[in-house]
Design goal:
Layout (H helix, E strand, L loop, with lengths): L2 E4 L5 E5 L7 E2 L5 H6 L4 H27 L10 H19 L15
Antiparallel strand pairs: 1-2, 1-3
Length: 111
C-alpha cells in the first residue's frame, strides 16, 4: 500500500509505507507506481531485450576465448556446454532457413 509524493510535474518523486503530509495513496498495481519501481511493461521489455543482447555478447566472448585457446569448452560445466551447443545449433538452423540475399547462385552471379 504505497503512499506517494509527486514532483511539480506530477511524476512520482518518492514512495512511502505510511501517509505523511501531502502523500497520496495509490494501489500497488497503479501504472505510475509500477513505472516508478521499474515494473512497467516497457521497462520489462527493454530489460528483456538488453538481457538477450547481453547473452549474445557472452556467447561471443566464450567463443573468442575458445578460439584463442584461453579455455576449452570442456572447462565449462556440463550444463553450460549443453546450453551453448543448443543455442549454437538453434542459430545455425535459423540462419540456414533465412533469406540469403547476397550469396552467389547457379545463375552466374557476380559479387
Amino acid at each position: 500500500m504505497p503512499y506517494i509524493r509527486r514532483d511539480t510535474e506530477g511524476r512520482i518523486a518518492s514512495l512511502h509505507r505510511e501517509a505523511a503530509g501531502t502523500a497520496e495513496f495509490l494501489a500497488d498495481e497503479h501504472p505510475d507506481v509500477q513505472a516508478f519501481v521499474g515494473n512497467a511493461d516497457r521497462a520489462r521489455e527493454d530489460f528483456s531485450r538488453l538481457d538477450a543482447e547481453f547473452v549474445r555478447v557472452i556467447e561471443d566472448v566464450i567463443d573468442t576465448l575458445i578460439v584463442k585457446n584461453v579455455i576449452n569448452i570442456t572447462d565449462l560445466p556440463d550444463q553450460a556446454q549443453a546450453k551453448l551447443f543448443a543455442r549454437k545449433s538453434f542459430r545455425e538452423r535459423v540462419s540456414q532457413s533465412s533469406l540469403r540475399l547476397f550469396e552467389p547462385t547457379d545463375y552466374r552471379d557476380v559479387i
